[in-house]
């Protein structure tokens, strides 16, 4: 009797479990449908439009500015502002930008690890996106500069190397003064950063050009072991069979508070100097 009861109980139990599973499945399905209809219902409101207009004017903003702007746009247009829903807010904008091959994308500054949002033209996948502002030979030099940076160990190109490659242009040669002027413009337009005569790709450039860089430099491009984004300025594990790369800010965050730095992949001693975690103005909760 007891056995029977137990059996019945077990059977009922497993049947209940089955039913629950089924319900869960259906629940998941319902949730997906709800998500979809919510996507359909996602409407650009005035707050979204204002946010987008500012992004169009600026091209790129840091995370803190994006948060402030989000709050400002909501308050100005009397819509609900939920501080941790910035990415959802941007998703709504992106859903409307998609047919125009535009997108607001997020990326990290390789200098300080700060997050940025950039408005990206997805239709033009390479440097032709710059063709309205730069002549053909200027774009050729920018491509050569990218080659130098991507293929370098430290993600930098010296002004000397860039000037030398200006001599090898096939479109139309650039004089030294023209090259210097062009480099200043590229920095001013936020495609390159410059520090002590060395050039790096700007955050904007990395966010906008990532698909191009990944396809163009498949063999050379490095990916950060921690955040999985492409990496230029990074530290490299010295064990030859490992050789993983980590962005400097990701190094700083990863090794913070660890007694002895060891490679997250091979566990070898990490011989590089660990940079300080530089906190930008804002504090993320993480
Ligand atoms: Zn990283
Ligand atoms: Zn390693």
From TrEMBL:
One Gene Ontology cellular component: chromosome, telomeric region
Residues covered by the Non-structural maintenance of chromosomes element 1 RING C4HC3-type domain: 224-266
A Gene Ontology BP annotation from the UniProt entry: double-strand break repair via homologous recombination
Chain positions covered by the region annotation Disordered: 1-45
UniProt keywords, alphabetically: Chromosome, DNA damage, DNA recombination, DNA repair, Metal-binding, Nucleus, Telomere, Transferase, Ubl conjugation pathway, Zinc, Zinc-finger
Top-level taxon of the source organism: Eukaryota
Composition skew (Basic and acidic residues), residue ranges: 20-45
EC number, UniProt record: 2.3.2.27
Subcellular locations according to the entry: Chromosome, Telomere; Nucleus
GO molecular function, one term: ubiquitin protein ligase activity
Biased composition (Low complexity): 1-12
Catalytic activity of the protein: S-ubiquitinyl-[E2 ubiquitin-conjugating enzyme]-L-cysteine + [acceptor protein]-L-lysine = [E2 ubiquitin-conjugating enzyme]-L-cysteine + N(6)-ubiquitinyl-[acceptor protein]-L-lysine
Assembly and interaction partners: Component of the Smc5-Smc6 complex.
Family assignment from sequence similarity: Belongs to the NSE1 family.
Function, as annotated: RING-type zinc finger-containing E3 ubiquitin ligase that assembles with melanoma antigen protein (MAGE) to catalyze the direct transfer of ubiquitin from E2 ubiquitin-conjugating enzyme to a specific substrate. Involved in maintenance of genome integrity, DNA damage response and DNA repair.
The protein's name: Non-structural maintenance of chromosomes element 1 homolog
Species of origin: Sander lucioperca
């Amino acid at each position: 009797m007891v056995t029977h009861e137990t059996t019945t109980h077990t059977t009922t139990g497993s049947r209940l479990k089955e039913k629950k599973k089924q319900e869960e499945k259906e629940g998941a399905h319902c949730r997906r449908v709800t998500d979809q209809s919510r996507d359909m219902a996602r409407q650009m409101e005035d707050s979204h439009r204002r946010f987008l207009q500012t992004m169009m004017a600026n091209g790129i903003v840091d995370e803190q500015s994006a948060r402030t702007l989000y709050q400002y746009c909501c308050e100005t247009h009397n819509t609900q502002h939920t501080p941790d829903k910035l990415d959802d807010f941007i998703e709504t904008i992106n859903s409307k930008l998609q047919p125009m091959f535009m997108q607001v994308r997020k990326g990290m500054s390789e200098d300080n690890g700060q997050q940025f949002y950039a408005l990206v033209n997805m239709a033009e996948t390479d440097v032709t996106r710059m063709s309205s502002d730069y002549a053909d030979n200027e774009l050729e030099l920018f491509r050569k500069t990218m080659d130098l940076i991507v293929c370098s160990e430290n993600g930098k190109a010296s002004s000397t190397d860039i000037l030398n490659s200006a001599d090898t242009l096939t479109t139309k040669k650039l004089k030294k003064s023209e090259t210097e002027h062009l480099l200043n413009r590229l920095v001013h337009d936020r495609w390159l950063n410059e520090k002590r005569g060395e050039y790096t790709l700007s955050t904007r450039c990395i966010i906008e050009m990532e698909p191009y860089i990944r396809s163009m430099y498949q063999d050379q491009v490095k990916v950060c072991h921690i955040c999985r984004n492409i990496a230029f300025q990074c530290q490299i594990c010295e064990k030859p069979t490992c050789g993983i790369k980590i962005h400097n800010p990701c190094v700083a965050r990863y090794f913070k508070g660890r007694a002895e730095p060891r490679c997250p992949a091979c566990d070898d001693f990490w011989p590089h100097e660990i940079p300080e975690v530089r906190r930008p103005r804002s504090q993320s909760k993480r």
